[in-house]
Amino acid sequence: MTRPNSSVHLVTCAIIACALGAPALASAQSLIPDGAEARLLRGGFSFIEGPAADAQGNIYFTDIPENLIYQWSVDGELSVVRKDSGGANGLAFDKDANLLACEGSAQRITSMSPDGTLTVIAERYNGKRLNSPNDLWIDAKDGFYFTDPRYQGGDDPVPQGGEHVYYVSPDRATVTRVVDSLKKPNGIMGSLDGKTLYVADTTGRTFAFDINDDASVTNERIFANQGSDGVTLDERGNLYLTWMAGVTVYSPSGEKLEVIKLPEMPANCGFGGGDGKTLFITARTGLYAIKMNVRGRPAANRP
Fold first, then answer.
1. Euclidean distance between CA atoms 225 and 203, whole angstroms
2. Do the Cβ atoms of 153 and 131 come closer than 8 Å?
3. Is 27 part of a structural domain of the chain?
4. Can you give the pLDDT at residue 163?
5. Is 125 among the domain residues?
6. Would 22 be classed as within a structural domain?
7. Contact yes or no for 246/47 (Cβ under 8 A)
8. Cβ atoms of residues 123 and 108 within 8 Å
9. pLDDT score recorded for residue 11
10. CATH code, 165
11. Do the Cβ atoms of 87 and 64 come closer than 8 Å?
12. What is the pLDDT of residue 12?
């Protein structure tokens, strides 16, 4: 396996200025410290995904084909925290520091407690197995939304008859389908105020929905004419989309602010590190990081 180079190129000021004008350029530049570059932390993985930070800023991520969940510590140490992960993809920590995992090949979502106890949270809807849970976002009530496309089932029939978005209630007792209009939903994230749900479709668009008090969603609209694999959000409400060109940053109003280019196609990204200002990027075979001027959105288990 060829290890990727650690070089990275930030989009040029001239390109941004032409597209957005000087005021937007100043905002975009302030996201990244002058001279900061993404660096390769570790290469040689098969296909890594799902970065999520714990309360200390340690980053957890998955290697899907290898069925492993790793931790990259704030001290720069790599360790395996779970084997036989069921093809785990997207990860998230809930308010009690349990690590939730979308297990694509096992067709379920699990919760791993701090002591390592594993609990199955969701594996069926209307009596049928889920497709291949991909990514999730936990809301302020500790319920969560998740996407359920079909990637890890080969040519097998899609159990749910389509690829949809679901909500799991805070008590983990009820699974509700909330979006059935997308073709292949993938990355998912909620806005800072919890009133907007972003869902990236890998067919080339990212959608926004209004979140209602009962957790249903309405008012589907296009947020960006760009799809994404994974997504994350910073403390300013900017949305980060991963696609062929790199990590693209959009303002809450949908303006393109920045593109962070990588030597290989990124799959997902998330903030972590001791101060929460490091953007970690899982890019197929390599784990990258770039120092930022902003933190990620406050996590469920952080003050």
1. 10
2. yes
3. yes
4. 96
5. yes
6. yes
7. no
8. yes
9. 34
10. 2.120.10.30
11. yes
12. 32
Evaluate whether 48 touches 40 at the Cβ level (below 8 Å). Answer: no
Handedness of CA 270, 63, 6, 54 (dihedral sign): positive
Which residues have a Cβ under 8 Å from the Cβ of 138 and sit 6 or more positions away?
A: 92, 93, 94, 95, 100, 144, 300
Q: Are 269 and 258 in contact (CB under 8 A)?
A: no
pLDDT at 80: 98
Tens-digit pLDDT profile for residues 101-141: 999 999 999 999 999 999 999 999 999 999 999 999 999 99
Question: For residue 241, what are its two tokens?
Answer: 């989309």
Band (pLDDT 50/70/90 cuts) for residue 18 is very low
Rounded to an integer, what distance in angstroms lies between the CA atom of residue 54 and that of residue 99? 9
The pLDDT of 266-272, averaged and rounded, is 97
- Please report whether residue 153 resides in a domain: yes
Q: How far is CA 192 from CA 53, 82, 221, 236, in A?
A: 17, 30, 18, 8
Q: pLDDT tens-digit profile of 180-226? A: 999 999 999 999 999 999 999 988 999 999 999 999 999 999 999 99
Quote the domain boundaries for residue 154: 9-291
| Model confidence at 7: pLDDT above 90 | no
CA nearest to 51, candidates 267, 226, 290, 301 = 267
Beta partners for 258?
A: 249
Rounded CA-CA distance 274/255 in Å is 29
Number of continuous H segments (helices) and E segments (strands) in the chain? 2, 27
Tokens found for residue 138: 């936990």
Residue type, 176: T
Residue 69's beta-bridge partner residues?
62, 82
- The DSSP code sequence of 253-293 is TS-EEEEEE-SS---EEEEESTTS-EEEEEEBTEEEEEE-S
Number of compact structural domains in the chain = 1
291/273 Cα distance (integer angstroms): 9
The span from the CA of 13 to the CA of 270, in Å, is: 24
Write out the two tokens for 289. Answer: 């990081």
Half-sphere exposure of 109 (CA within 13 A, CB side): 32
